[in-house]
Amino acid sequence: RVEADLDLTKTLFTEEQIQTRIAEMARRIEADYEGRDLLLVGVLKGAVMVMADLSRELDRHVEIDWMAVSSYAGTKSSGVVRILKDLDTDLDGRHVLIVEDIIDTGLTLSWLVANLQSRGPASVEIATLLRKPEALEMPVDVKYVGFDIPNAFVIGYGLDFDEKYRNLRSIGTLAEHMYS
Ligand code: PRP
Ligand code: MN
Ligand code: MG
Fold first, then answer.
1. Structural domain boundaries, residue 83
2. Which of 7, 104, 141, 148 is catalytic?
3. pLDDT at position 174, please?
4. Going by DSSP bridges, is the β-strand pair 39-44/95-103 parallel, antiparallel, or unpaired?
5. Which of 35, 80, 151, 160 could form a disulfide with 134 if both were Cys (CB 3.0 to 4.6 A apart)?
6. Which atom of ligand 1 lies closest to the CA of 132?
7. What is the CATH number of the domain that holds 52?
């Protein structure tokens, strides 16, 4: 195991639980998008692991593109999101599925959905591995959710604390001594 696993207070989801759930999400996505082209849009950097595993689990052709957005610098409530790297793909008439690691306040995703909707796609939906219902500040209509989790600081499987722990295979809560 990675040494960093020692910084986890508690494992929320093991590698096996994550992969099982992603496979279930993939079966639903395959069924829902049957006969339609599908563009997966990943949000850097947290979504990298979900995108890698979800896209490979899908037994069909997909296209993959990426966006990088700044998370509302400064105060969390501003809701201001800035595009750091835009898509290479024209969304006109496309079926777009945004792939995220986590929806926390919902500010990033509510802004992103509106932004992508304005580009004339055929549809825009969201697949997120994690969601924190208690932290939600903006309503976000999410079609595919892996797990609803309590309002705690979670790391691993793409999720970072100060840019670390993204490479853990499991997801857990960070030990308090690591950030206090
Ligand atoms: C995290 C996470 C989501 C977003 C969710 O990204 O990966 O993209 O925050 O938060 P919200 O629902 O409150 O908007 P972050 O901005 O930390 O960037 P990262 O993906 O590069 O870690
Ligand atoms: Mn992110
Ligand atoms: Mg982050």
1. 22-151
2. 104
3. 85
4. parallel
5. 151
6. 12
7. 3.40.50.2020
Residue type, 86: D
CA 97 to chain centre: 11
Is 43's C-beta closer than 6 angstroms to any atom of ligand 1? Answer: yes
Closest CA to 101 of 160, 159, 62, 161: 159
- State the CB neighbour count (10 A cutoff) for residue 6: 9
State how many domains the chain has.
1
In this structure, is residue 159 part of a structural domain?
no
Q: Is residue 160 part of a domain?
A: no
Low-confidence ranges of the chain (pLDDT < 50): none
Q: What is residue 8's predicted lDDT score, i.e. its pLDDT?
A: 75
Cβ of 106 closer than 6 Å to ligand 1, yes or no, is: yes
Minimum CA distance residue for ligand 1 atom 7: 46
Is 104 known to be catalytic?
yes
Q: Is the Cβ atom of 113 under 6 angstroms away from ligand 1?
A: no
46 in a structural domain: yes
